[in-house]
Design goal:
CATH architecture: 3-Layer(aba) Sandwich
Number of domains: 1
CATH superfamily: Glutaredoxin
Helix content: 25-40%
Number of strands: 8
CATH class: Alpha Beta
Strand order of the largest sheet: 1-8-7-4-5-6-2-3
Radius of gyration: 21 Å
Shape: globular
Order of helices and strands: HEEEEHEHEHEEH
Length: about 190
């Protein structure tokens, strides 16, 4: 008898979960922060593989996926092909991927890795100061979605879902740039 009640209870719970999971009123995932709650992304000056200075402010007017990563990071290696795909798919619409490598070995590690992976977006060498500007990078990958006005619209920490990235990119590409916000961004983010 106890066995019958246990199976009945499990069956009822499964049916109830099925109704909740398939309900039309399931909560919708919010892809980016509301415009009023976004903060300016701190500007930085970092160098790419050719030694050229790269500033985040160089990308003003574009939607930017700013990815803090390292060559030794397993989850980073999973996301990099997605970012290459996003670069190809959305570049013509005003989107750019910018990778900030946090490798201690610098270009010695990054250059062969980028060549092997055929990374098609710009990579710069980061440092602790840059990570600190972004609240301290506690885990890799840490990725920031930055809107056309240079504000952080979403933060991803750790391995994230490809669809979440796509949703955020699409949402930000559809939003118009407002020139009133195109003020210089200082290194302190103000």
């Amino acid at each position: 008898m106890k066995r019958y009640f246990r199976f009945a209870l499990i069956g009822c719970a499964a049916v109830a979960l099925g109704f909740v999971a398939c309900s039309k009123s399931a909560p919708q995932r919010v892809s980016v922060k509301n415009e009023n709650t976004r903060h300016r992304a701190p500007d930085f000056e970092l160098h790419d593989a050719s030694g050229k200075v790269v500033r985040l402010s160089d990308y003003r007017g574009k939607v930017v996926l700013l990815d803090f990563w390292a060559t030794w990071c397993g989850p980073c290696n999973i996301e990099i092909p997605w970012f290459e795909e996003f670069q190809r798919t959305y570049k013509s619409r005003g989107f750019e991927v910018l990778g900030v490598s946090m490798d201690d070995d610098g270009w010695k590690a990054i250059t062969p890795f980028a060549a092997e992976k055929k990374i098609n977006y710009r990579v710069v060498l980061g440092n602790d100061k840059t990570g600190d500007q972004y609240g301290g990078i506690e885990a890799l990958p840490t990725t920031f979605m930055i809107d056309r006005d240079g504000r952080i619209a979403k933060t991803f920490v750790g391995l994230s879902d490809k669809k979440e990235f796509q949703d955020a990119i699409e949402s930000l590409l559809q939003a118009p740039e407002r020139s009133a916000r195109l003020l210089p961004v200082r290194p302190n983010g103000s």
